[in-house]
Amino acid sequence: MHVYACVKRVPMTGGRITLTDDQRAISTRHLGFTVSPHEECAVEEAVQIVEREGGSVTVLTLGPSESEEQLRDMMAIGADRALHLLTDGEEWDPQATAAAIVTAIRADAQPPDLILFGNESADAGNYQVAVRVAHALGLPCVTGVKAITIAGGRARCEQEVPGGRDVYDAPLPSVVAVKEGINLPRYPSVPGRLRAKRKPLEASSPERPAARLEMTRLELPPDSGKQVKILGRGPEAAPAVVEVLAELGVL
Amino acid sequence: MSVLVLMRDAGDELSLQALAFARSLGQATGADAEPTAFTIDGPYAPASWGQTVADLVTARSPRAVIAPGTERGNEVMAHAAAILDEPLSANTTAFTPGDPPTVTRVRWGGSLLEQALLRGGTLLITVAPHAVGAAPAGVTPEVVPASHHALALAPTERVGASSGGVTLEEASVVVSGGRGVGSAEGFAVVEELAGLLGGAVGCSRAVTSAGWRPHTDQVGQTGTKVAPEIYIACGISGATQHMAGCKGAKKLLAINSDGEASIFAHADYGVIGDVHAVLPAISAEIRKVRGA
Ligand SMILES: Cc1cc2nc3c(=O)[nH]c(=O)nc-3n(C[C@@H](O)[C@H](O)[C@H](O)COP(=O)(O)OP(=O)(O)OC[C@H]3O[C@@H](n4cnc5c(N)ncnc54)[C@H](O)[C@@H]3O)c2cc1C
Ligand SMILES: Cc1cc2nc3c(=O)[nH]c(=O)nc-3n(C[C@H](O)[C@H](O)[C@H](O)COP(=O)(O)OP(=O)(O)OC[C@H]3O[C@@H](n4cnc5c(N)ncnc54)[C@H](O)[C@@H]3O)c2cc1C
Predict the structure, then answer these.
(1) Among protein residues, the one whose CA lies closest to atom 19 of ligand 2
(2) What value of ipTM does the predicted structure carry?
(3) Domain extents for chain A?
């Protein structure tokens, strides 16, 4: 099984988001970077599938040169090699992102049996890159997936829906977009990190097409304007808390 | 030019919000006065439903197709957009006419908004839940038979129906624990209070990553979104991705040993203290009040 997993570098925002002066990006001067939990789970799932079925895991990102950090992180938890589609840091819209991913996959001498995505990226949340890649490659697609079982050349995928899970029986190759909770990703070990430094990373620089969904400005949603009422310190606050619960009618 | 609205059914709240969004988009762009609401008839198969929307676009050349930003709404519209090779604005909160028009849409699960130019022949838009008020019920949507798509997969069975009990989504009280709870065993005090209030237990991602609770308990951007009467956040710092899951709560009570924690900026009520001292005291007080 040759499995692809697509990840996107995003800032690790903390308690509040601060924007740059031109309001076109999150101010990242004091922030670390990561990938969406959904995507980390996609890589973990790919590694587990290959541990069982044999084969290899390719992790792919489209992003600035700094995204190599995320590719190495993903190789530290078990991906075998990385494809880096280099950008100059400008945002690519979902159509352009999907097109670049499709070109990269088509150019691979070893076509994938399974292409995993996060259900939505952590920052833009466009809910569409996986679906677009599937249509362009002429492959079936399942999204919102919380469990995958590979057997007999097919992937049994469980999609989370209100009140249970819908089962899709997808022939391979297929595209699957997964959600956090499908597994518990391992932490990278020190030897894993060292090995990741030597794993193969191939870079290319695709041409960015004109954006058809073009971000022009970011803004923070209006402040909730809440003023916290401190009910007390320590256990002595209990009667005041219970009074509030009674007022709210939940006692 | 017409505006089409994909509805789940005539009474569905989020579909009626999409209809309201479509009406104001129609007025702003000088399209036909009333949008055409439709539902798709046939078993759910995402690519086929996307093909249905694409076929309608080809046959009727509408100005826009609007759908609710639910899981299915986004999924169907992503397929339609891929088939038509048109851009899709998912989870949109506002529309400003222009050439091209500007959409406002949700990022980071609602912690940030984006303005973007939407350069589509047909504007494909899903509407973020609860971004606009619902249109009054009473439309009779046109019923469109599902088209065929060669790559379509349909679900073969439904498994794992929930086992009863209060679900996180529906609970009127959620007592949620973070890293500050300290351990899996430490959740006993959280469970005790949730039990007394007939509520559900939630947690932060720090807790699921540590393996203290299952991911089904996680509240947040990549977990469950909750909307209780009161959300009691215990030992949770208030990261934006956590708040994305609980901003639908009517009231928020934060219990945290650090008076400077950012959770207090989102809270209506606060207690500064150790969860392992404060929670048992609240549970004891509830028993005392009820016993009286
Ligand atoms: C049950 C179910 C669950 C769903 N969940 C929801 C939901 O909760 N809400 C909703 O509104 N819709 C939901 N959808 C819609 C969903 O189907 C999307 O259409 C689909 O998952 C694709 O989203 P996306 O990956 O394109 O989103 P995007 O946010 O555009 O990106 C998703 C993924 O694409 C890859 N990717 C993106 N950018 C890059 C990059 N620069 N480099 C490499 N890879 C990249 C990553 O793997 C990323 O996680 C769901 C559908 C169903 C039926
Ligand atoms: C893309 C992305 C998606 C994410 N999705 C989610 C998500 O869905 N849900 C989620 O929760 N997180 C999510 N996160 C993670 C998030 O950024 C935070 O890391 C996480 O919410 C922190 O959890 P916490 O508040 O429990 O831990 P911490 O941030 O470590 O906070 C612990 C708090 O407990 C307090 N404390 C410590 N001891 C005690 C005590 N004895 N009594 C009382 N208080 C005490 C501390 O003062 C502190 O405020 C996501 C992150 C990213 C990048």
Answers:
(1) B206
(2) 0.95
(3) 2-222
